[in-house]
Each structure stands twice: as C-alpha cells, then as structure tokens.
Amino acid sequence: MNASRPRLAAVIFRWSARILSLVVLALFVFMAMGDNILANPPSLEELPLFLCFPVGMTAGLFLAWRWELLGALVAILCLALFYLLDFLVSGTMPQGPFFLLFTSPALLFILAWFLGRKPAA
Which of 1, 15, 63, 116 lies 20 to 30 Å from 8 when distance is taken between CA atoms? Predict the structure, then answer.
C-alpha cells in the first residue's frame, strides 16, 4: 500500500473532525443561549452532569485540535461519565442518539490519530 494514502486519510479525518467539532461546539452555544444558562444555572443535582456534558465534552474537543488522542479520549470519557451519572441520578439511561452523535468528532479524531502515526522502524 502506498505510504501516502494513510497520511491523506489522516488529513481528511482530521479536518472532518475539526469541522464537525466546530458544529458541535456551535450547537452547545445555541443550546446554552436557548436555555438561558446564566439566568437558570444548573441545580446541584444537575451540576455534575453539566460538567461532563457539555463542559467536559467541549474541553475534550478543544484538546483534540492539538492532541488528537488525548482530547478524543477526554470527550468520550466525559460522555461515558455523563451516562453513568445520569443513570445514578434518574435510574434511566439518556434516550435517543443525540448524545452519541455529539461524540462523533472524537471518533474521527481517533481515526486521524491512528492513521497519522509514524510507522515503526
């Protein structure tokens, strides 16, 4: 296989992840504005959930722009922690695919990292 193909795929995945992460971050901003988060801050019960999603997810996506694997893992771990905390608080798992869709840039960052690694000598 041509050595430049994985590099090209890494660039494509990297920029796809970056663009999609900007879309996700814009959606977070719109949701915060729509919920008027400053006037209605999260309750003490909701605060750990809020720190995982969207705060932790946002931090992970920002980190992934520089450190792809680290940032992606932070975003994925924050989502997993969000699911766990939500289950512990409410007794049910979040419904629908939307929370998972917000994590899709993290998966693309992992693919970009994997394809962009230098081959072992």
Answer: 63
Report the SS3 class of residue 43: coil
Q: Burial letters for 74-109: b for 16+ Cβ neighbours within 10 Å, e otherwise? A: bbbebbebbbebbeeeeeeebeeeebeebbbbbbbb
Q: Residue 24, Cα to own-chain centre: how many angstroms?
A: 8
Residue pLDDT tens, the chain, 121 long: 566 777 899 999 999 999 999 999 999 988 888 877 777 788 888 899 999 999 999 999 999 999 999 999 999 999 999 999 999 999 999 888 888 999 999 999 999 999 998 876 6
- pTM, two decimals, is 0.89
**Rounded Cα gap, residues 1 and 60, in angstroms:** 33
Nearest in space to 111 (alpha carbons), one of 33, 26, 23, 15: 15
